[in-house]
Amino acid sequence: MKCTLKSLVSLTLLPLVFGAEYLVGVGKDETTGKKGLGFDPSVIHPQAGDTIAWEFRSGQHSVVQSTFENPCTGNGGINTGVQTVSDSLSVDAPGLPIIRVTVNNTDPLWFFDEAGGLCSKGAVLAVNPSSTQTAAAFKENAAKAPATSPPSTTQGDSSSSIASETSPAPSTTPSNAAQQIGQHVGLALGAFSFLFLGML
Ligand SMILES: *[C@@H]1O[C@H](CO)[C@@H](O)[C@H](O)[C@H]1NC(C)=O
Q: What InterPro entries does the database record attribute to this sequence (predicted)?
């Protein structure tokens, strides 16, 4: 009974320790709410200690960290690996893949959807943009980014060719990355619960 109470208390305190979670749909059009291009929402303002939870809602997508100046080029930072969601699942299906990262400060962070292609068409996510580096300017930089595949002659849908040429990650990478993040979260949870239990 005592143990149950302690666990309950520590579970109740956990959200205070870990801050808010910012759920961002990937492969979901933020204007239509349907499966589509980019991030929903495409701009967020988390605080230090908050979590970004990328929920992959359609097709093949990956979230890759870039820079304000070069929105469509990975900077060697965060990379979720390619996440694949069956076409038969709805945009709000339960159990879609989620990858979380903790925000460590309020410096701007810039991301794009590498596997989904279409970065230059606006598949970008601005985290804590500033008054000089705005989300709109980030999107403009993305629109000017050099194409990652031979430019198509039409303005039409070239997503499939882009997607296949910009998804180099082997199929083992996503689950490994997710697992690693999961392990880190698990370790942190364990450590904090332990601390709280000790204090009670
Ligand atoms: C915050 O720090 C952790 C631990 O160093 C790191 O894994 C994570 O990627 C960082 N978050 C961001 C958004 O850079």
A: Cupredoxin, Ser-rich/MCO-related
